[in-house]
Amino acid sequence: MSQKIKAPNASKGGNGFLWGIIAILVIAAVAIGFIVYNNQQHKVDNITLPDDKVDVKMTTDENAVTLEPENAGDDVPTVEVFEDFSCHYCAQLETASSGDLKSALEDGKVKVKFRFLNFLDRGDESGPSTRGASVAWAVAKTGDVDAFWNIHRLMMDEQSTVTRQWGWDDLANAVDKIGVEGDVVEKVRNESVKEDGVKVAQKNDKEVEKREGSVSSPLLYKDGKRFDPPTNPDQTLGSWIPVALEGK
Questions:
Q1: What pTM does this model have?
Q2: Is residue 24 part of a domain?
Q3: Which Pfam families match (predicted)?
Q4: CA 219 vs CA 29, 32, 90, 125, 201: distances in Å
Q5: Is the residue at 32 inside a domain?
Q6: Which secondary structure element, helix H or strand E, spans residue 112, and what is its range?
Q7: What range defines the domain where residue 114 resides?
């Protein structure tokens, strides 16, 4: 009777090789997962956060965040800024104007109403415009004017990364590091701030459409009258503060 002769260690060796491959793949997956998680946790540590102190009063009503001098008189002009956090020109305008605006506010020369839009999300309520509006509105509702000013600056000045690429977890980490107290950090993380953010942005979208016939940004109004910011020689937008204070 013929018999087949089997190498005694062939099967065992084959299984050992297979398990070795599986172990390597598992280790690699764990390592990649750790790197991704670690990078996500430390995105906020790899960027410089604004840390301004702003000596002004802040209120949130009529779908606007209003900043004004503590003892503003009736003759102080009110400027409305309609902006979308995904709008490239809005980011240019904020970067050019924030230093002048801070000085003008603290010197009692102007009031400003920030009105957030989300039309650039084109109906996608998970988009960057909605995230920006939701986070900014939620932070403003806490009454912490420094935190609002700094998260607003962060999302505009670092628009290409923070606003367009960061998710809710990343933004929650930034809100936390900026020093916002209470449950806002967790509400950003679990996206529950989005409901109010969407409502505010959509109402402001409708207000722009009512005034202009269509929605665009940025838009500036001084005491209800539309004006345009200056344009620099390189075609970027300049600070709107000098224009707003003309003839004051």
A1: 0.83
A2: no
A3: Thioredoxin_4 (PF13462)
A4: 48, 44, 9, 22, 14
A5: no
A6: strand 111-117
A7: 56-245
